[in-house]
Amino acid sequence: MRIADDSSSYPLSGRGFCVVVRVPFAILGTSPILTARAPRAKIPAMTVPSLYIHASRDFERFLLDARDELSLPTTNAAYAAVLAVFVTFRARLTPEQALVFADALPAVLGAMLLREWDIAPPKPFADRATLTREAQTFRPDHTLLPDSGIADTTRVLRRHVDPAGFERALKRLPEGARAFWAI
User: Quick one: angle between helices 75-90 and 149-159, nearest 10?
Assistant: First the structure.
C-alpha cells in the first residue's frame, strides 16, 4: 500500500493537516475504508486574544514596574499595595461601573479589581489624602503603601493600559473616578 496514492490531506483551521488513509479491505478484514480521522469542516480560525495569552507576562511586568515606582522591596509588596488602591477605588463604584473599569485593564488587573468583592452601596469619593489613608488601612500587616501610593499606582497603571480605552472607561464612571486616576 502506498499512502501517497491512497490518502488525502485536509487543512485543519490553519493548524496543520488531517490525513485520511484509505486502506484496502483485504488488509483490514473489516470496512472497505478506514478513516484515521474524519475531515473537519472548514471553520474560520478563532485565535485566543493576546490579552489572555500574555496575561501572566504582562502582570509580572506590571508588578515589577509597580515595585520600582512605589519603592517597595518585592513584587508581593507591590501586589498588596496595588490591591489596596483597587479596593479603595472599587468601594466607590457600582458593580456595573466596576465592570466598565475592569474591561479597560489588562486581564489579571481586571480580575484583581473584582476579586473577593463584598458588594455594598458605593461610598462617596473624597480627597486623595483621605483615600490614601483608607488604602493604607487595607490589610495593614501586608500593605506598605506610601503616602504617594495612589499617585504612584496611577502612573504605573497608565503605562500598562490602552490610553484611549482607559479614558473612555473613566468617562463612563462617576466624576470622582477621573480625579482618583489623575496624575
Answer: 100
